[in-house]
Amino acid sequence: MTVQQDREINAATGQPLVVLEKVNKHFGALHVLQDIDLSIKRGEVVVVIGPSGSGKSTLCRAINRLETIDDGSITLDGQPLPAEGKALANLRAEVGMVFQSFNLFAHKTILENVTLGPIKVRGVKKADADKRAMELLERVGIAHQAEKYPAQLSGGQQQRVAIARALAMDPKVMLFDEPTSALDPEMIKEVLDVMVELAEQGMTMVVVTHEMGFARTAAHRVVFMDAGAIAEENTPHEFFTNPRTERAQDFLGKILKH
Ligand SMILES: Nc1ncnc2c1ncn2[C@@H]1O[C@H](COP(=O)(O)OP(=O)(O)O)[C@@H](O)[C@H]1O
Ligand SMILES: [Mg+2]
């Protein structure tokens, strides 16, 4: 069975992959995550949307333990997130993360940026890591730039490299935190196209974005966050055409005007 068939079957049976239960997090007096319950199925694509400061980034960062939580639980594939050491490094590999800023290593080539994690964390041999990295760079349309340095690439190209770099670790889930919001308009589509393809191939994805085209094309579910809580969740079609809460109506009213 191919990995993709495996994923599709799992998606169909609705097995939960990432489960957050009663997750709470404070930054001092600010209650930034409030009783978050969220279960993400294998193969599911969840778009997280909501006003600035509502806790979307903190939610993503909690899922790969860049942020600790105060109480509640987060499990990946049935296992609680490890707190430290080698287990934490492995978790970070299993949860691919793509940020707004690309965070590529400036003094390493594109190819080295993609192979570094597999070699250092996964112990993959350089020749094997190179081969796999070239396949991934091919997939995101950057293979011909493999020997260049990040600064020689456009923002859209760098973001596609960042996606390839995360994929090189064979993650179970990919988190995207506003991956296109720092890009010039003409580059947004090339990144979204890669993400749509990934979704179609059955990758489990959590995507913070206000790109409604992406949400409508690729998401199974939209989660609307407001002031640290999940205020509403629904299918993209229902959420965008018929938001139930006043806060979601307000928010959509604002972003749709732009
Ligand atoms: N490290 C931090 N220390 C203190 N406050 C923070 C920190 N990170 C985020 N915050 C605050 O937490 C709230 C939620 O932030 P964030 O998760 O980044 O929201 P979003 O991604 O939805 O814009 C904001 O009010 C933000 O200022
Ligand atoms: Mg954010």
Structure, explained:
InterPro entries: AAA+_ATPase, ABC_ATPase_HisP-typ, ABC_transporter-like_ATP-bd, ABC_transporter-like_CS, MetN_ABC_transporter-like, P-loop_NTPase. GO terms for molecular function: ATP binding. By secondary structure, this protein is of the alpha/beta class. It contains ten helices and ten strands. The protein has a six-stranded mixed beta sheet, with helices on both faces. A hairpin with a 2-residue loop joins strand 1 (16-27) and strand 2. Helix 5 crosses helix 6 (155-167). The protein is globular, with a radius of gyration of 18 Å. The termini are far apart. The model has no long low-confidence stretch (mean pLDDT 92). Magnesium ion is lined by residues 56-57, 177-178.
Please give the count of helices.
Answer: 10
Contiguous low-pLDDT stretches (5 residues minimum) are: none
CA-CA gap between termini: 45 Å
Strand order of the main beta sheet, please?
6-7-8-3-9-10
Give the overall shape, derived from the CA principal axes: globular
Classify the helix fraction into a percent range. Answer: 40-55%
Biggest sheet features: 6 strands, mixed
How much is the radius of gyration in Å? Answer: 18 Å
SS strand fraction: 15-25%
Structural classification? alpha/beta
> How many E-type strands?
10
Order of helices and strands: HEEEHEEHEHHHEHEHEEHH
Ligands in the model, by name, code or SMILES, are: adenosine-5'-diphosphate, magnesium ion
Main location: membrane
InterPro entries: AAA+_ATPase, ABC_ATPase_HisP-typ, ABC_transporter-like_ATP-bd, ABC_transporter-like_CS, MetN_ABC_transporter-like, P-loop_NTPase
Subcellular location: Cell membrane
Family: Belongs to the ABC transporter superfamily.
